[in-house]
Amino acid sequence: MKVPQPTGRTRLSGRFLRRVALDELDRPVGALHRGYLFALSLLAILALANFLILRSMIAAQSQAVEITRIATNQRQTFARVARIVELILRTQDQYAGGGKWLAATREELQLLAQRVRANQTQLNAMLPPDGKSWPAWLNFRGGEDGEPAYAAVTPERLADFSRLTAQLADQIEDFSKLDAQQVEWHFSLWAPIELTLADRGALVSEVNALTHDLYAAALTGARRFSRVHELLAAVTLLTLLAELMFIFHPLLRRLGQRNRRLLVTVRKLRQVVTHDMLTGLGNRLYLNSRLQELLGEPVPKLALVLVDVRNFRSVNDVFGHHIGDQLLKTLAQRLSRVEVPSEGHVFRTGGNEFAVIFLQDLNAAALLQRAQRLRDELNEPIFEGGRELQLKVSIGAAIFEPAASKCGEDDEDVYARVGPDLMSPAPADDVSGQTAVQQQVSRLMHQAGLALRSAKASRADTVSLFGSEDEAMSLVRDALAQRLVRAVGGGDIVPYYQPIVEAGSNRLVAVEALARWITPMGVVLPLEFLLVMEEYGLLDALTDCMLQAVIADRARWQAAGLQVPRIGVNFPEVTLADRRLLARLERLSGSADLSWLSVEIVETVLLSRAHGLVEGNLKQLRRAGAHIALDDFGTGHASLTHLLSLPCDTIKIDRSFVSTMLSDHSSMLIVRGVADIATGLGIRITVEGIECAEQWAVFQAWPGVSGQGLLFGAPMPAQQLAQRLSSTHAAV
């Protein structure tokens, strides 16, 4: 038995959980994303404003520093010129010293004149006289709010300064061109220079004031820029706080609330995925997970018990699903309280299957005793809806053993009995990629399943413990199933035909196709392999194989000119529930006319969950000409009302009533009652198991009665039936 891997339902549940999580978080995360983008945009705008303010402040400071440097250079140049002129004027009366000093400093004076003009040119270039491009920081007015007092550096002020500076440069150049004799007499040249460059002269006073005012303006501009920058920083901080309080905090709070709700939803959905909604017990997925946890412990001590309610389906179908659900709840409650200690665990692993884990160190005798007490309690009548319902359970149990179980000494006996062909490897579990714990879980569940299979094969209320013989028999059954698959595909299962004779005329009016397995050891009857085929889901394939063989035999008979009677084929529930059954039969037979076919069904198909689909298919087949026969009537749980709703043409009275009716008055009454009802409803009767003339004589009084049994012929191969058809010229 494989360890239950994530099934389609489990994967779907996982995807559903993820989808719910995404849907639940989508809105708050989307709002958080939008809030984040808004906050990021606002902060980007504030950061850009801060950047522009800082860049403007740095540019203004750089410009102020450069202007101050030029003004300082100009002031130093003026000071040098003033010292030279002062030296010449003081020494001109002393042995013509003025002329000598003039000659010595002539070139320097010319260079100083050029420097004065160059400095002024740089100043004019940095401070254009037009008001449009005039630096804003030079328009500040000092003396406000604690700022230093200074005069504004206006274009007019700089224009006057530039004019005085140009005049001074001209005077210096003119003064430097005088010779020694002319120095003494040209007061008109050196006197203005001396006056201009005096400490309190107009030009020196202006350059000092200009330097002071430029410095004060730069300082004031820096302070004002700083205040604007501080204001923007405060706005940024307040913006961050506002975003946190009014955007992110509410969104994060909503996200937290959604996350908490999501956790609750995920826990509920996980409960749905791992637990049965009807009983509240863990399901097969949770059983597998719990076994992995327990077997992962250092010294695991546990036993696994599987419980199967054998007749639950019949009770559920007869009394309704509501009663069935109540029965399941009652069984779950009994399992949870009876002989299951506090450390035990109970699971519902299927529609009518339960599992119990005992976490105790139990030997085989103790486990068998506890399992039997469980069985006795579960078999107690249940009173539900005013009815007393009796359920029968089968129990299989296995004790966990660290070492792999072996088949034991009986393997050789099994091998000798079934032969090497049957002992070919059974379908193996796919354990690739499984851990050691998962393989142990797989082995334990496989062993408990084998024990349950053994209990179900014996009788309904049996308790079976896993043993070596269970594994050996499972090997045989698996190998048998493999051989049956090959037999169905290879044409080794063929139809044998048993005649159905009409009363009065003794005409062969129909035949029933019965499956026979042709093996080297002889012909194997269905009683020996049908249960295995049902267990392994091969009944539909068997029906398909039988139909193909019957259609082929019928075609050969028709080609030989024989009159072929109606052929009855048994249809299991799985085939009758096929939505494309009619199209399938038409494809196999190559015709839409199915009047040659008698569809034989048993009563249990009328009680299946798919009974609506079954009845619909039967009505379609009848419209296509097929004959509907209700086989083994009286042995199942069908109600007489089904005869009114079901499109039934023939009732086949089961051989169990026919074999005892001559000696048992009750059986005779049942047979006559069924015959009277069928005759009154216009339904034909076929009596199975007719083995002697005395039995056949009982049914001569009813019209439309046919007989089937050894009295008219045993099931025979197609060739033998062809010979009988040829010799008797039977009519359809």
Automatic annotation (TrEMBL):
InterPro entries, sorted: Cyclic-di-GMP_PDE-like, EAL_dom, EAL_sf, GGDEF_dom, Nucleotide_cyclase, Rev_trsase/Diguanyl_cyclase
Record domain GGDEF: where: 300-442
Segments passing through the bilayer: 35-54, 231-252
Keyword Methyltransferase on entry: no
A Pfam family: EAL
CDD domains: EAL (cd01948), GGDEF (cd01949)
All residue ranges annotated as the EAL domain in the record: 477-729
Signal sequence interval, chain numbering: none
Chain segments annotated as coiled-coil in the UniProt record: none
Keyword flag Transmembrane helix: yes
Keywords: Membrane, Transmembrane, Transmembrane helix
NCBIfam families reported in the protein's UniProt record: GGDEF
Protein name from the UniProt record: Bifunctional diguanylate cyclase/phosphodiesterase
